[in-house]
């Protein structure tokens, strides 16, 4: 089903590239069926063409009528302008997928044609290698067949979760923004490794394998994170000392607050757009 779909990405930034890479690596969509556009950065389109074999189009040259799926991948502040610009080029049977953080499905539906099929998605940049944790919400006009196509498409980028709209903010806090917390953690692991005498590259490799091993343990073993943690922790041993330092320095609280902060920002983005709409 998927290999017949023509897909246009509106927005050619980090998330668009991660999705393109996921699609191409999956080999389930021929590159020449993927079109990508932005506002005015032709060098960026050329770069994506060269790297992935997709077709970069200046916005004015992109005929949306010939595509099946339109992916909105611009910043939240730019979505209203984008919706205005595409509305009358679309037919309601075409599927619009938005990856824009904080923007509710109903807002997108309200600013497109009556009956437009819409799906809201929250991927993360691990889509690049087919390892995203991706959530989606189906819009009110979206057919079961279109949901199946979207699931097939999103599966090229990783694991998918169908959620209620109300859970998208917390999902964004955990999974959409989540890779950044892990990278930040690695930055600190690397710093400590260097201070302990390792070179940066070795410290990073050790840190990555440790995170990967722990992640796989949580996936494959039938034990809670707390149980797994206890198995690492010998009484009065090194781990107990490390965990105590984490507690003293608010490590757990910091992780919790990072997720809550991102969740809250996702909500705010939604309110800001609502305000913008009601002011007009
Ligand atoms: N980065 C991430 O990890 C994730 C991002 N997202 C969401 O994805 C969206 C994009 O994020 P990201 O890729 O990081 O952002 P970037 O700033 O990297 O890219 C934004 C892109 O949108 C383009 N753009 C803006 N307005 C228009 C328009 N009217 N028509 C065509 N193109 C337009 C820009 O083009 P130009 O350069 O020409 O201005 C640019 O290519 C955001 O809404 C974000 O919330 C969701 C999950 C994860
Ligand atoms: O930082 C952001 O707003 C986007 C959404 C999730 C990840 N990046």
UniProtKB/TrEMBL annotation:
<dbReference type="GO" id="GO:0004735">
    <property type="term" value="F:pyrroline-5-carboxylate reductase activity"/>
</dbReference>
<dbReference type="InterPro" id="IPR036291">
    <property type="entry name" value="NAD(P)-bd_dom_sf"/>
</dbReference>
<feature type="domain" description="Pyrroline-5-carboxylate reductase dimerisation">
    <location>
        <begin position="165"/>
        <end position="269"/>
    </location>
</feature>
<dbReference type="GO" id="GO:0055129">
    <property type="term" value="P:L-proline biosynthetic process"/>
</dbReference>
<dbReference type="InterPro" id="IPR008927">
    <property type="entry name" value="6-PGluconate_DH-like_C_sf"/>
</dbReference>
<feature type="domain" description="Pyrroline-5-carboxylate reductase catalytic N-terminal">
    <location>
        <begin position="6"/>
        <end position="102"/>
    </location>
</feature>
<keyword id="KW-0028">Amino-acid biosynthesis</keyword>
<comment type="similarity">
    <text>Belongs to the pyrroline-5-carboxylate reductase family.</text>
</comment>
<keyword id="KW-0560">Oxidoreductase</keyword>
<comment type="pathway">
    <text>Amino-acid biosynthesis; L-proline biosynthesis; L-proline from L-glutamate 5-semialdehyde: step 1/1.</text>
</comment>
<dbReference type="InterPro" id="IPR000304">
    <property type="entry name" value="Pyrroline-COOH_reductase"/>
</dbReference>
<dbReference type="InterPro" id="IPR029036">
    <property type="entry name" value="P5CR_dimer"/>
</dbReference>
<comment type="function">
    <text>Catalyzes the reduction of 1-pyrroline-5-carboxylate (PCA) to L-proline.</text>
</comment>
<protein>
    <recommendedName>
        <fullName>Pyrroline-5-carboxylate reductase</fullName>
        <ecNumber>1.5.1.2</ecNumber>
    </recommendedName>
</protein>
<keyword id="KW-0521">NADP</keyword>
<feature type="binding site">
    <location>
        <begin position="73"/>
        <end position="76"/>
    </location>
    <ligand>
        <name>NADP(+)</name>
    </ligand>
</feature>
<dbReference type="InterPro" id="IPR053790">
    <property type="entry name" value="P5CR-like_CS"/>
</dbReference>
<keyword id="KW-0963">Cytoplasm</keyword>
<keyword id="KW-0641">Proline biosynthesis</keyword>
<dbReference type="Pfam" id="PF03807">
    <property type="entry name" value="F420_oxidored"/>
</dbReference>
<feature type="binding site">
    <location>
        <begin position="10"/>
        <end position="15"/>
    </location>
    <ligand>
        <name>NADP(+)</name>
    </ligand>
</feature>
<dbReference type="InterPro" id="IPR028939">
    <property type="entry name" value="P5C_Rdtase_cat_N"/>
</dbReference>
<dbReference type="Pfam" id="PF14748">
    <property type="entry name" value="P5CR_dimer"/>
</dbReference>
<dbReference type="GO" id="GO:0005737">
    <property type="term" value="C:cytoplasm"/>
</dbReference>
